[in-house]
Structure formats: C-alpha cells, structure tokens
Amino acid sequence: MSEELSATDTSAMLTPRYAEIATFLRAPLAGDWSAVDIGLFGIPYDGGITNRAGARHGPRAIRDASSLMRMIHHVTRFNPYEVCRVADLGDVRFRSVYDHETVMADIAAFAGRAHQAGMRPFAVGGDHSVSLGLLRAAAERHGPLGLVHVDAHTDTWDQFHGSKFMHATPFRRAVEEGLIDPKRSIQIGIRGAQNSPEGWEYSREQGMRVMFIEEAQDLGPAAVAAEARRVVGEGKVYLSFDIDGLDPVYAPGTGTPEAGGLSIHEAQRFLRALDGLDFIGADLVEVAPPFDVGDLTSLSAATLIYEILCIMAGRYAA
Asked: Which segments cross the bilayer (predicted)?
C-alpha cells in the first residue's frame, strides 16, 4: 500500500451484524470522495426491464445481505481493507426516473464524479441497462475498454418494442458508441433459447468472444479465466456481472432466469483467477428481491461483490 493511502476504518465491521446502518460489505459511508479508492454505490433502477420488474430493490437488499461478509479471504488470506480505502457512496439519485435517457445521464454523471475523484467505481444495480451509463463515464476517462461480461445473455440486441435502451441492449450501444473494444471483450455463460439469434450473431460479428455455458463448464473456471485474460490483454478492463449468469438454484431472484448456469463456486473461482487485471470499474446487476427465496440471491450477490472487491483491491497491494 502506498504511503499516502490509509486503510479503511473497519471498526463498524466488528459490531454485531444486525447493528449500524446497512452499507455495502459494511464499509463506511463516504464523506470525502477524494479519500476513497474503491467506491461502492447503488443504482435503484429497473426501467429497462422487459418482463419481471424488481431490480430497483436490489441495492437495498444486497446491502442488508452483505452484512454477512467478513474481511479476510478464506483462500488467499487477503484483506482488501488493509490495502485500500473502500466506502459506500450511497445511491444514484435521478432527476426523472421515468425518462430512461435522463437516468443514463444521471448514472454517467455520478460515476464520472467517482472517476474524477480518482477512485474505481463499483456499481450495484438495478437492471443491466445501467451498464451503458457506467461505461460512458469510464470510457470518457480511460478511453475504449476491454470487457469481461458474465451473463446468461449477450445483451447485444438492437431494440425491444421500439426501444434501443433497455436491459438487453447496453453492450450493443457500448460498441456503437466506442465505449468498449469488441475485440477485447468476452461474454461468458451465455445460454437459453431465443426467438432470434440476433444478439449472439452481433457479438461475434463485432469480434467479441462469446463463450456459451457448455464451453465454460467443459473448460472449468481456471481455463475460462485464462481465456478472458488472453482476450482482454494488458489494458484497462471493465467487469460486468449479471446475477443471472448463475444458475437459478443460486439466484432465483432475477428478472430473466435461465436454467443450467454457473454455480456460485464456479463463479467465485473464476473471479479469483482474474486477479491482476486492471479493472477500473465494475457492476453487479439484475438482483430482483421480489422473486428471491430466503434472500439467497442477495447473499450470492454480496458474496460475488466481495470476490470482485478483492481482485480490484489487489491493484493497491503492490
């Protein structure tokens, strides 16, 4: 850890888990954004959903479930809070929650402030449409990015019932706007029958590496991570994890569940194997608490958020 950094105040993490204000991973609430290295924040928005709404409630439920997380990783013995300053930035506030383009602008402005403050923003949604606003902010600061995208769906369809801005289109818009480099992008866990192959074909035509679930499970987490490393290379990378990348057994509370997905253990091992990549931002999306069972999806989400935090914090350990 560099001399100018001080570790996160973890005193509140040692109180009973049912105490204190619920924050992501029990991190302190941010005051001075310039004193934060990794900023977690919520995006309570699901105006881009095509069917089962409820992801707007995701950030609040995940904050509560994340009180079960602890500090030291059981495999690596790494404590992210010792090497960098982690804080909860609160939620994006919307000027007009029924206007999707205004919502994207609000998300981009919030994430842009985080980038300008020198931190690595980590957003918790919300539906997957929010990734477009987040990528706009990240690319404005860092240029076109590599992408590691875990999902049941490519989210590269062109439109749905006349709208080009919804949760199945963010990465097509991101390619069109030059926010991501499709040749440095990989989509992992893709599955489920579709009425049109449009999304799969667009991703491949643009040069994105599309890894269907059968290939991912045949290879195993370590080989999948090695392929992700090969695709994204040494440059700056963005990580987007849709909770429906997991099998519904581990994440029933989501808008578009698809059977036959990753296990939580496969996802954890895959994420750990990405350690060392330069993730300048991340999101975890599509947790819909109204469809959850026993808070299982929120717990899975909180667990993956901790894993992602560890690999993001690893950049500060040198």
From this structure: none
So where are the chain's domains? Answer: 11-316
Q: What SS3 state is found at 297? A: helix
Which CATH superfamily does the domain covering 11-316 fall into? Ureohydrolase domain (3.40.800.10)
Q: What is the pTM of this model?
A: 0.96
d(CA 168, CA 155): 4
Beta strand pairing status for 145-150 and 38-43?
unpaired
Whether cis (ω within 30° of 0) applies to the bond prior to 245 is no
Average pLDDT per consecutive 10 residues, the chain (318 residues; last block may be shorter): 66 87 94 95 96 97 97 97 97 96 97 98 97 98 98 93 87 98 98 93 98 98 98 97 98 97 98 98 98 98 98 90
Angle between helix axes 264-272 and 221-232 (nearest 10 degrees) is 40
145 strand-pairing partners: 180
CB count, 10 Å around CB of 104?
22
The b/e string for 259-274 (b: 16+ C-beta within 10 A; e otherwise) is eebbebebbbbbbbbb
Helices 100-116 and 130-142: crossing angle in degrees, nearest 10, is: 40
Rounded Cα distance between 43 and 56, Å, is 7
- Farthest-apart Cα atoms in the chain, separation: 55
SS3 103: helix
Classify 175 in phi/psi space as left (phi over 0), alpha (psi -120 to 50) or beta: alpha
* Helices and strands: H and E segment counts in the chain: 10, 8
Task: Look up residue 133 and give its two tokens.
Answer: 């606003």
